[in-house]
Amino acid sequence: MRARLLRLANGLSESYWFVPTVMAIAALLLAATMVWLDSHHMATWMDGLPWLYAARPSGARSLLSSIGGSMIGVAGTTFSVTIAAVVYASGQYGPRLLSNFMSDRGNQVTLGTFIATFLYSLIVLRTIRSPDESGGEAAFVPQLAVLVGVLLVLCSIAVLIYFIHHVPSRIHINSVIERIGDRLLLEIEHRFPKPIGHPADAPDDEAAIPVAFASDAAPAMLQQRVCVDAKDAGYIQLIDADALLRIARDRDVIVRLQYQPGDFIHRGSTLLEAWPADRLDDDAIDALRDTFASGSRRTALQDIRFLIDELVEIAARALSPGVNDPFTASSCLDWLGAALADLGGRELPSRLRADKEGQLRVITHPVTFSGFVDRAFGALSQYASADMIAGKRFVAVLGDVALGCHAADRLDKLTSLTRQFRDLAGEALTGVNREVVLQRADELLRALAAPDHQRRLRDGQACLGETA
Fold this sequence. Notes:
468 residues, 2 domains, 18 helices, membrane, transmembrane, DUF2254_membrane, transmembrane helix
């Protein structure tokens, strides 16, 4: 249940309607409060300020009618501009970036401001009474409420000016890439690796895994495992790690995850396996199933691979024959390089997770530096190898990543990828372009093969980088 609530909270924060709805409700409450203050003679201090005083009901009506009519018109225009920008961005950069623009807080606040001002004016307008409408009673003009309405108009004008600047800047390709890259770096710094429980005493010892989970387990051992199947189809958006560990500890079982955030599941998919089966009843199985929350699309809530895929998609589109924009692809490579360089200096968690007592409880998917390198640069190598500008930048970024790596296996992975890229470039390019890219790749390979690879990479950084 907690996983679904967290997914709902994330969905509300990224929705286009939630913030405007909250602001509209706040405007209704503000209008009721201002009218109540006026009805209790809280605006008598305005009598000494004639330039603030709307003396006649007709003048107040005209003012609020103008405010309401103009605000609903501007709100419609704002919505149209936002949709046009979203359509353009999704067509140019990829449909998966649609949620990034719809969840933009600036657009939400802009639309909410205009709608809130319209509703406020409408509510205050209906409380104005002329002498001939009040049945002999005194006329009522909520002077304080009208003043607040004017202040809301001033705020709306400021928001409109901000919106006119905000939309073009948000759909600029460098801004789009920067937002994705910044979030990727933030996720790596603060949430990755996000462990379940505590590292086991022997994180790399496969002997700690129960025999029942072995690939060659006997049929009798297989019967001791219970499979927790999915009830819905969609992409896994969230796994409640704390609840999963707590259930495993309380039931004294070991669970092995079959999927991770970002994977697609369908009805009948095995979310996880638990051992031994005799310690789990139907309630425990339902509780384990509830630690997973799925939806119709992938999100970056717990899926760092999704952010990498977004940058890869933009770069791949930029290098397609119909677009042919190697500089946009180079920007994506720069941000991917920054993320992998940061990740290259971090210690990745074991897939064996234990509770506070050191007892193995959860077996997760292995998280490897090699896997992220393949996800980012391996997916782009076929595109970048066919373009001289992107190819040179590809090699330079691999060198930047190698500067942050010390482990031999990670350097071996970068070396292997560089060789593969060199082979692809040798087949895809011709003439001088081919010679330039192959030369850069050879320089990087020689630096990676040296014991003091970091010094060599720094010495040759000007040659490899060619930054603007």
